[in-house]
Design brief:
Strand order of the largest sheet: 1-2
Strand content: 5-15%
Order of helices and strands: HHHHEEHHEEHEHEHHEHHEHHHHHH
Largest sheet: 2 strands, parallel
Number of helices: 18
Helix content: 55-70%
Radius of gyration: 31 Å
Number of strands: 8
Distance between the termini: 56 Å
Oligomer: single chain
Length: 465
């Protein structure tokens, strides 16, 4: 019998129950549901809404139920043939149904001064708090891996790119540390999110509060919340923290996808800048020579999946009036999917990056094959007093000459340089050394060896303490 059956004279149609049941999805919240119920029943006893003996009976039974679910003797899955099963709408009703089986009518007192509306809002916040902290740890681990890899290759030069065209020489370590900075912003966003997640909605009831003398603050404190979601309507109808969480997950996945794309490109024979370890690549079912960067490609592909999770929840929420509506049951699948996908992707990227080997000689060879130091020539003229725009034009003409003659800037005679500007002197060729060009960088946060070493030391202090 349904827990609301007093108003009704017939059971829910089996097809309607199957269509509306979220048990197969929200069973993941069973620990949070029981944790919230234990705190709620303790408060009911403290406020003398139920007796201490009744509270103890309910609490002991809830702990037993948690053990049954953990061991698999109580199976919260409509499809399972193992253990004791429940045909229930959701995890909350399944647990309450089992509670009443175990201890009888006193189990029905658990739901005093509580609605499933504020109950599920609480469970989701408890889940978000735990999951956000897990993701923060995974982000930090990936940052550490990037810093370790940057330290390993701290003296290797590479072509830097804009528009996927070679631009200027940079240190490989500087490139890798860019991802550390990106991930740090992700950590900041998730940390900031916790301040909004860590508010208790319990005690809002269905939407209007309760006439019982409950102590919302006591429950919040016992569950280690920093405060309350004050407005009872907002408490049950808001899903902003879920949306924000998935939005942050989407940004993380965007960052991981950019890294994955570079691994895909760099590990190809056309680039051949990097090699991914065999444990994170696959072969072909037909071509024996293939070594495919499948894990990187999957991370890139799963990014779209998390974007979809965000759009799904935004679309669910955009047109429903206050307060709670059953549409909001659809919030859990995108939430759980985004959380799992991000956690798995962070973990796989960290493990995969540890196996990546970069080809220092290949990088060095490529530095000599293009006009990456053209900007150095323009800055050379600027230091001699020429306006930058004029210097830019002159060097552009020199590049055109080299392109026409199919030679490098280092092969262009000094007489040709001086045809374009008398400011060019014999020392101009010293501007065309890639490693020297890095040392000339003076701005904070640049690719100069001094600044990169400073950044590595700084990240090590922040991440490895």
């Amino acid at each position: 019998m349904n827990l609301w059956s007093g108003r009704f004279r017939s059971q829910l149609d089996p097809h309607a129950l199957k269509f509306s049941s979220s048990l197969d999805v929200d069973k993941q919240l069973y620990r949070e549901d029981i944790e919230g119920s234990l705190a709620h029943v303790a408060m009911l006893a403290k406020q003398k809404i139920i007796s201490l003996q009744e509270a103890a009976t309910i609490q002991n039974a809830l702990k037993e139920i948690e053990g049954e679910i953990a061991k698999g003797t109580l199976v919260l899955d409509r499809k399972s043939s193992k253990g004791k099963r429940f045909v229930a709408e959701d995890v909350h009703m399944a647990i309450e149904q089992r509670l009443m089986e175990k201890i009888g009518p006193v189990g029905g007192k658990l739901h005093t001064a509580r609605s499933r509306n504020d109950q599920v809002a609480l469970d989701e916040r408890l889940y978000l708090r735990r999951t956000t902290k897990q993701i923060l740890k995974l982000i930090r681990q990936l940052q550490k891996t990037f810093v370790a890899k940057a330290s390993q290759y701290d003296s290797v030069l590479m072509p830097g790119y804009t528009h996927l065209q070679r631009a200027q020489p940079i240190l490989l370590a500087h490139h890798l540390l860019a991802y550390v900075s990106m991930l740090n912003r992700d950590r900041e966003r998730f940390s900031d999110l916790l301040t909004r997640v860590n508010r208790s909605p319990l005690g809002a009831g269905a939407l209007a509060g309760t006439p019982h003398p409950i102590d919302r603050n006591a429950v919040a404190r016992s569950l280690r919340f920093d405060g309350l979601v004050e407005n009872s309507i907002d408490a049950v109808s808001d899903r902003d923290v879920l949306i924000e969480f998935i939005a942050h997950c989407s940004i993380v996945m965007m960052h991981l996808s950019r890294f994955a794309e570079e691994l895909v490109l760099w590990s190809s024979q056309e680039w051949h800048f990097a090699e991914i370890g065999d444990a994170f690549t696959t072969g072909s079912s037909i071509m024996p020579q293939k070594k495919n960067p499948d894990m990187a490609e999957l991370v890139r592909g799963k990014t779209g999946r998390v974007y979809g999770d965000l759009m799904a929840l935004l679309t669910v929420m955009k047109g429903i009036p206050l307060a709670y509506n059953r549409d909001m049951q659809e919030d859990k699948e995108p939430l759980f999917d985004a959380a799992k996908t991000v956690a798995d992707s962070l973990a796989i990227c960290s493990s995969m990056l540890k196996t990546v080997k970069f080809d220092a000689q290949r990088f060095e060879n490529e530095l000599a094959s293009d006009f990456l130091l053209a900007t150095e020539l323009a800055d050379y003229l600027v230091r001699k007093g020429m306006p930058f725009r004029k210097a830019h034009s002159i060097v552009g003409d020199l590049v055109h000459v080299c392109t026409r003659k199919k030679i490098a800037l280092t092969e262009l005679p000094l007489t040709e340089y001086r045809k374009h500007s008398k400011l060019f002197e014999k020392g101009v060729y010293s501007m065309l050394d890639p490693r020297a060009s890095l040392s000339r960088k003076r701005s904070a946060g640049s690719t100069s060896p001094k600044e990169v070493q400073k950044a590595i030391r700084s990240w090590r202090r922040r991440l490895f303490r």
